[in-house]
């Protein structure tokens, strides 16, 4: 029996849960990124966006939220509906109910200045993590930031993931691995050359 991805969000109601703590870290990096980027228009894509708590939670508290043109990609229709409700009043935010593993879901939304991969790398195979990192130059604008998360449950793949980012043209800007929990939050900046978005195919299959 698979995970109920709508029910999974219940842990956000507990501010002390690992999920809420991870969310706070992701939000803080999104907020800091917006402070560092003064451009009048910024593009954001969020893969497996769930109910959009990370990006939408930040935009709700910012007077400059209209600078952001975002696509949240979420496969579960219940979560997509919740994200649409949370995005009410944010004209630049689109919620697409689709498979975030497919390149076609990003057409028209990339190259992006911020790519959110929160909750992705812990729910796909290791080979798909590697393929996704290698494909990120097709989603990223020059100087883009990628924020990602992953558990450190043994065997811990996070050091290997960092190497894959380096090979794909990224530099690590932050990495959080609290001692009392297993989650990590990574932030990488793209310093390589962007590539065209493939016309078809997939980066990963969510499991």
Explain the overall architecture.
The chain has 207 residues and is α/β, with parallel strands linked by helices. It has one domain (23-190): Vaccinia Virus protein VP39 (Rossmann fold), CATH 3.40.50.150. It is 27% helix and 25% strand. It is built from 5 helices and 7 strands, in the order αβαβαββαβαββ. The chain has helices spanning 18-36, 53-59, 77-86, 126-135, 158-167, and strands spanning 42-47, 68-74, 93-97, 112-117, 140-151, 170-176, 183-190. It has a 7-stranded mixed β-sheet, with helices on both faces. Helix 4 links the parallel strand 4 and strand 5 (140-151). It is globular. The model has no long low-confidence stretch (mean pLDDT 95).
Kindly report the average pLDDT value: 95
What is the CATH architecture assignment?
3-Layer(aba) Sandwich
Order of helices and strands: HEHEHEEHEHEE
How many β-strand runs?
7
Sum up the overall morphology in one term. Answer: globular
Derived from helix and strand composition plus strand pairing, the structural class reads alpha/beta
Main sheet properties? 7 strands, mixed
* Count of alpha/pi helices: 5
CATH class identity: Alpha Beta
Strand order, main sheet: write it out: 3-2-1-4-5-7-6
Distance between the termini: 11 Å
Query: How many structural domains are formed by the residues?
Result: 1
Helical percentage? 25-40%
- And the CATH topology? Rossmann fold
């Amino acid at each position: 029996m698979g995970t109920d991805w709508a029910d999974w969000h219940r842990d956000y109601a507990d501010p002390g849960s690992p999920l809420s703590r991870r969310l706070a870290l992701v939000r803080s990096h999104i907020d800091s990124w917006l402070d560092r980027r003064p451009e009048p228009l910024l593009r954001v894509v969020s893969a497996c966006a769930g109910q959009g708590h990370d990006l939408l939670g930040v935009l709700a508290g910012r007077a400059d939220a209209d600078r952001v043109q975002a696509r949240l990609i979420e496969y579960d229709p219940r979560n997509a509906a919740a994200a649409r409700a949370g995005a009410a009043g944010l004209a630049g935010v689109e919620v697409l109910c689709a498979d975030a593993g497919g390149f076609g879901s990003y057409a028209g939304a990339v190259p992006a200045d911020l790519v959110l991969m929160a909750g992705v790398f812990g729910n796909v195979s290791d080979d798909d993590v590697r393929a996704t990192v290698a494909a990120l130059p097709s989603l990223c604008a020059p100087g883009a930031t990628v924020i990602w998360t992953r558990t450190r449950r043994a065997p811990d793949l996070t050091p290997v993931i960092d190497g894959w980012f380096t090979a794909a043209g990224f530099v690590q800007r932050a990495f959080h691995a609290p001692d009392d929990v297993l989650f990590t939050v990574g932030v990488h900046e793209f310093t390589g050359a962007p590539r065209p978005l493939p016309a078809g195919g997939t980066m990963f299959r969510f499991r």
